[in-house]
Structures are given as C-alpha cells and as structure tokens.
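ok so i was messing around last nite and threw this chain in just to see what happens. nothing serious, just curious
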Amino acid sequence: MNHWSQFFIPTLKESPADAEIASHKLLVRAGLVRKLGGGLYTHMPLGLRVIHKITQICREEINAGGGIELWMPHLHPVENWTEGPRWNLAREIMFRADSAGAGKRAPAEPEFVLGPTHEEIITPLAKTEITSYRDLPKNFYQISTKFRNEIRPRYGLMRAREFIMMDAYSFDADDAAATQNYLRMKAAYERFFTRLGVQFIAVEADTGVMGGNFSHEFMVPAEVGDNDVLYCDESGYAANREKAASALVPADLADAAPDGAVEEFATPGVTTIAQLEAAPHSVPAGSQFKTLIYIGDGKPFIVILRGNDELEEAKLGALGFNLFRPATPEEIVPVLGAKPGSLGAVRGTLGNPNPTALAGVFADHAIRLVGNGVTGANKDGFHLRHVNVARDLAITRFGDFRRVREGEPCPVCGKPLKLRRGIEVGHIFKLGTKYSERYNAVYTDAQKQSRPMVMGCYGIGVSRSMQAIIEQSHDADGIIWPWTVAPFQVLVCLLDPQNEEAKSVAQKLAAAAEQAGADVLIDDREERPGVKFKDADLIGIPLRVTIGGKGLKEGVVEMKWRAEKELAKVPVGVAESHLATLVRDAWEKAPRVK
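result:
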C-alpha cells in the first residue's frame, strides 16, 4: 500500500489554459501528466501506474493471441525507409536526425529517422531470420515509444509528438493463414478493450498509407473524437467515414434514358454548385454533376460526383495511384481548356487541347441516380444541360467515391445508418505481400519454392487509450476510473491522521483490501476533509473508504463508489470483511483472460 504523503500526486484546482477538452484538462489537474512542450508530456507517477496497467493487460492479451514480444530501436537508418514502399508518403511525419559526422549529407537526406512505426525494421529482420515454412507463422510485437512530427499537436496525448504504442507484425505462409492470424489479433483487441472497461466499436477502415487488403479501427465513442463512425444497430455494420458505404444506389438500378439532346447554355459568373442552384438557373444540386480534377502519379484524372455529394478523398486510393492530390487551376486549364467551375466530362468536350493527358474519368455510382443533369461545358461561363450518364459522359469506370451521410440505408440490411464520433485507439491491417516483396522477405515452402511472406500489422495507442478512457468516463468533479486500470482501486481517506484509533483502523482496512487484490492508497495528508474529498473525486479512484473521528464514535466507516452518489455506513466490526468482499466482487465482475 502507498501513503499519499509519501507518494507524489500534484493536483491542480484550475485547468491549463491550452487544454481544450475534458480529458486533457483532467490529465493535468489530476497530476497524471505534465507538459514539457508541444505534444511532449512527462507521465507522472499516478499516470505511469495507469500506463503500466494498460500495458500489462495489452501484453497478456497479445500473448494470448500468439504474440512474441521483442524490442526494436527507435532510431532507424534512413536507408531502411527509402528502400521501402512508403518513404514519399511517410517522410513528412517523421523526425529526422543526423550524427555528428553527417555534415556531408543534404538536409533532405537525413542519416537517421525516429520511427513512427516499424514495418521497415521488422521486415528486413524477418528476411534474415525466417527462411523456411517451418519457421511460420510468427507474430512479433513490442510496447514502446513512437514519434510523429505533428504540425499542430493538440488535445494532450490524443495528438502527441511522442507516444506509447503497441505495434505487432505477423508473418504467414499464405493468405488463408494470414487471415486467421488477423482474426486472432482482432479477437485479442476486443478482449483488451473490454478489459479496459471502455465502450468501443470495431469498424471497417481505409488502409491509407499502410496499404494492404483490409483493416479495422477500434474506436472509443466520444463527442471530441477525431473520426466519424457510420454504424447500424440492426446489422452490426460499422465503418469509419473514409471507408463507409451505403445502399443508396440500388444494385438493380437501370440507367436513365436520355431526355433530349445536350444543350449548351450561358452561365456567366457561375462557378459553384450553389450559384447554379440559385435563380435564374435554378438547377438543384442533386441534378448537377460535380467535376473534380486530381493529379495521380503526375497525371491528371477526373472524378465525377452528384452536386449534392462530397468526395471522400481516401476512397481514391482504390484507383491504384501511389500518390494523388487535387490539381491546381494552373494545371487544369491546359488539360480541359477551362477554369474550375465550368468543368465537365462530356464526350467531345474533353481534351482542350490535349485528350491524351487524362489518366481516366472516374464516376461515383450515385450519379446514375441523376440520370440526366447539368455539367460544365469546359468553356468558361458555359454549362451543358440534358447530359445523360450512359450516353454522354466519358466514364472510364464507376466506383464508390462519395462521403456517406447519416440516415442512408445500411449496406447490409437497409435500415438507416447512424453517425457518431470516436477516438481511434487501435488499428489492424492485413498487409499482404506489399512489404515482403519490397524487401525480398521470402521463405522456402515444402516444395522448395521461394515465396513472399504474407504480413499483417497491428497497433494500439497505449497512452492515447489512457486519455480516451478519461474522455469517456468522467463527470464534473473528475475522473471515474474503471476498476482494471485505476492507478489505485481503493482510497482509504483518513480524516484525522493524528488520531491513533483512526490510523489503526485505516491500516487494517487497507491491509484487508490489499489482501483481497486491490492496489490501495491511504490519504494521510494533514488537509481539510473538503480538500481530501475534492482530490479523491478528481483522481477518480473507484472505491473510497472514509475514516473520521465522528464516524468512529458512531462505530462506523463510510464506503462510497466513485461512480455512485450514495454512500454506505459500515460498522467497524465488519468493515474489513465487507471491504474485502467488495474488492473480490469488483475483480469477479471485471473481464479476465481465460
């Protein structure tokens, strides 16, 4: 057991000026962290106890899922990254470091980088150490510090430059085995977050810069979350905004017949969807075709949406470009002959002056709901009406590129999708052979054939999870820790530290709780009861036992759960056994590794 007077819990009455959300304020006020600089935090003793508990639960569950723990360097030779598949995408978020003798290198070519993740380190390691199918499967993991060059760090540990993460990497002989490894890890994640005592949702996610076949994010629902989740209670479907789909466009939708010949009309000064909606033209947004120009691997391509839809840019990754970005007006005019606001993809209007410049015209499925609509004429100040999707638009292929909205039909059951925000605390990817092929990480199969290892990668934000728990579980007075991750489970609040009888009762109760399996903190400070109660609520220890001179005269001690308003007065004679029962019951209700 620990005594508050000998421990170190520097609580604050006021929130820091730069803290914008409740969890960030409480992290600092409860003495869990202290800020060193933008995105850099010291984990104070109380916060470190929570980190250790989260880490231990994580270790137990990843081990149960087949993980093997190791430790890799944080400082990486840049060659490991430049030889990999994502240097151009990842370099901007990486901290760079040169040794004292690296003066000959150009600033754009660092000698070392600090790792935000370790695919580029573990894959070459597996290449040298795993040679035969007999060595597979393997799943290596570590729990360590990561670094990300956040341009605008904010929200405390939510978006930090240095953070604690569990990252794991699986290696399998074939796709079927890799899928089984992926599912084992997904189940391990579900057990882990359940044991943390948080509500969470596992959602389908975009693979993004990581690449690979498919992925899931684990979200803790919270209004301040940085991700939108579309989900359906009826079917269980859930996906993040970047990946979400809907059944808005029926699978059996027939293409609309043309409603007349394409007709050009003047639209001077009209360059937006809203302007075309207004009088005198009065074309509803849902009857317009929105034409966007992007650059993919150095070549322009067109994306067409309904005028009332928004592009979900991450979905363009399905087109196969290594790099893509919005085109600038200066890049658009030489290709289409007009400025943004008058653009379209009608056959015969493309390619002014260069029809071969385009990498393709990609249309969202939902434009088929328009059937016949209005689009730009590729002439400044002019649009075209009666544009038929099947007859007139020069579409290379259809795809899902739009942002799904709340209320659209679930792709599984058709019921309306719901929307809520969430904090991403975990992410898993089935990578396939993207990295193993790049690094030539191969093994010899039973037929003596050389084959690339099939990989998966998995991450849990350990320090981010601590703050996500607080964001989900707090009230106006402070934190409400779940039992399994609380820095201490029982707080014995000694109101009169000089009273020998009270001290004796406190020691006996603390010992009883500790013997039953709780971490115990005795508040033996020479402070007023009001100060102690406010601090107790602030730091959020689940069960508080209060011992005061007045209560002892009545022959009782008070016991109160942090999450409940009522308190119980327990006779001193049975207080030890009663407290031990409460502790054992709390552990019994907490999910454990089976």
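not much to say yet. The chain has a mean pLDDT of 93.
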